[in-house]
Design brief:
Length: 207
């Protein structure tokens, strides 16, 4: 039987996220919401803290921009093809709600005494004021590439290889070359250097 806190969390997911996102075309799986837009995808993940329990639930909100070309070049280990429900950590550009609100890393708490309606209203605000407007700016491959130019790796919570791979896959070789040379100049470890050079060879960036 679920605790009061668990029931409040479920209600927050339903009324604070699902009822808004479903009409927009987002598909729900567990505490994840995914919208496929042509050649790009948008993901919202509600992440529970590992330090909570069923009576005291702590959670944050992660967002991701899924780029199939990036996933196929970096994550497709077993050649199974694109996933129906990509995972947020596999996205190219990743931001938490604290990033989007331009504040510290933000977590929310649910306990038995929590006013869940107030929390639901806060989740609706997060969606309508921050997450969905952000997604509107990144709803196509062209917009994703424009945004990528403005961001550094820390902004995206991404692998250091992310920009190199995307620019290479989209044949923006001048930008790929810049990323490639930057990675080499950072004095990578020997194993990472091998990986960098493999992508350099793939995209014709070796001198």
């Amino acid at each position: 039987m679920k605790t009061i806190s668990e029931l409040k969390f479920d209600k927050t997911i339903k009324e604070g996220f699902h009822e808004i996102l479903k009409p927009l075309g987002f598909k729900k799986k567990a505490n994840n919401f995914y919208l496929k837009l042509g050649n790009i995808g948008q993901i919202i993940n509600v992440q529970k803290s590992q330090f909570g329990d069923k009576h005291s639930i702590r959670f944050t909100i992660n967002t991701g921009i899924f780029v199939p070309e990036y996933w196929l070049a970096f994550y497709n280990y077993s050649n199974k093809g694109l996933p129906d429900y990509p995972k947020e950590p596999e996205c190219l550009i990743r931001k938490r709600i604290g990033d989007l609100r331009k504040q510290h890393d933000t977590w929310y708490d649910i306990e038995e005494q929590t006013d869940e309606q107030q929390l639901i209203n806060e989740m609706k605000k997060n969606l309508t004021n921050f997450i969905l407007p952000y997604f509107d700016r990144l709803n196509s491959t062209k917009k994703m590439l424009q945004e990528l130019d403005k961001l550094d790796k820390a902004d995206m919570r991404m692998t250091p290889l992310g920009k190199l791979i995307v620019y290479g896959e989209f044949k923006q070789f001048d930008k790929a070359k810049r990323e490639y040379e930057g990675l080499l100049s950072d004095k990578p470890t020997p194993p990472f250097l091998i990986t960098i050079r493999e992508y350099g060879q793939k995209y014709g960036l070796e001198k």
